[in-house]
Design goal:
Number of strands: 11
Shape: globular
CATH class of the largest domain: Alpha Beta
Helix content: 40-55%
Radius of gyration: 20 Å
CATH topology of the largest domain: Rossmann fold
CATH architecture of the largest domain: 3-Layer(aba) Sandwich
Oligomer: single chain
Length: 320
């Protein structure tokens, strides 16, 4: 049986056939999948946000649905509806696109807050309730949402409660010049996503998700995680700091990164590497701080650089 790292490397390499020059971002997206978390991909149009989501879905062999959010989209268009069946004289649930294993929510901030909130129950409880009946989502369940910067015309800022339910937020950014040339070469005749093959199955994904939970996290490293989230709440430039859900997200993401690097224990470096992606979108900086160009990302990086780093101890370590 292949090791967890080998399977993850295959997924990442397969996605890189489509997403060129963004290995760190691809790894973060796979980490979100392994942690059973949800991923928000925020960037300007045209940098590959949708293609990243499609590539991951095709690589892992999960059922896949795409929801294009628009200002006139209704909550029932997301969750599904109950339709009366004259033959059985009963109402039947017709599941919406959110009832898939991997759901791509394209341009999530183009819809109204009411429709955005339709995802809340599915993302947190992994179920949807329609007409008083609860329907569980399939396993695994991952929402990959893309978002344009809120300065773009026609966008609605996501409610803080919904942002907090995304385990991670990543930015792709523009490719390097050589990578952009490679993208043109690969798409000269057809799009490489059309040739992308499934390389793992659902059972492999579920096994990896369970393996992540078994990664050892030393009490000192747990304290380090909490110290970072607490520091976001005490910082003078912060209006709202990271929630306890942020600590859990950083905890789980560090475990997944350790598995990615073929370790069965978490290092402080794992925590530092995943801090910005898991915490920054949960932080609201004060208006005066925004004027000074202080962003949540720069604030997390500042705190990580300032806080003392504990020494990591391997599983089973005993003081002499």
């Amino acid at each position: 049986m292949q090791s967890g790292r080998a399977i993850i490397e295959q997924i990442v390499a397969n996605v890189e056939n489509v997403i060129v020059g963004k290995r760190a971002e691809v790894e973060q997206a796979v980490v979100a999948l392994l942690c059973q978390g949800h991923l928000l991909i925020e960037d300007v149009p045209g940098v590959g946000k949708t293609m990243l989501a499609k590539s991951i879905a095709r690589s892992v062999g999960c059922s896949f649905k795409r929801i294009q959010f628009t200002p006139d989209l209704l909550p029932s268009d997301v969750t599904g509806v109950s339709i009366y069946n004259q033959r059985t004289s009963d109402f039947e649930f017709r599941p919406g696109p959110v009832m898939a294993q991997i759901v791509l929510v394209d341009e999530i901030n183009l819809a109204t807050p009411k429709t955005q909130s339709a995802l809340l129950e599915a993302m947190e409880e992994r179920q949807v309730t329609v007409d008083g009946r609860t329907h569980p989502t399939p396993r695994p369940f991952l929402v990959l949402a893309t978002q344009n910067p809120i300065e773009y015309e026609g966008t609605f800022p996501l409610p803080e409660a919904q942002l907090d339910r995304f385990m991670m937020r990543i930015h792709l950014g523009y490719p390097a010049a050589t990578d952009e040339i490679a993208i043109m070469d690969r798409q000269q005749l057809h799009h490489p996503v059309d040739d992308l093959q499934q390389i793992v199955d659902v059972a492999d994904v579920l096994r990896l998700q369970e393996a992540v939970k078994q990664i050892y996290v030393d009490p000192l490293v747990k304290q380090y995680i909490v110290s970072i989230t607490e520091a976001t709440r005490r910082h003078e430039a912060v209006y709202l700091g990271a929630s306890p859900r942020g600590s859990l997200a950083l905890f789980r993401a560090a475990q997944a990164r350790a598995l990615l690097h073929d370790r069965d224990f978490v290092l402080p470096d794992d925590v530092k590497a995943m801090a910005s992606a898991t915490l920054a979108h949960r932080i609201i900086v004060k208006p005066a701080a925004r004027v000074r160009d202080i962003t949540p990302e720069s604030l997390v990086e500042e705190l990580v650089a300032q806080l003392p780093v504990p020494g990591a101890r391997a599983r089973g370590w005993v003081a002499g």
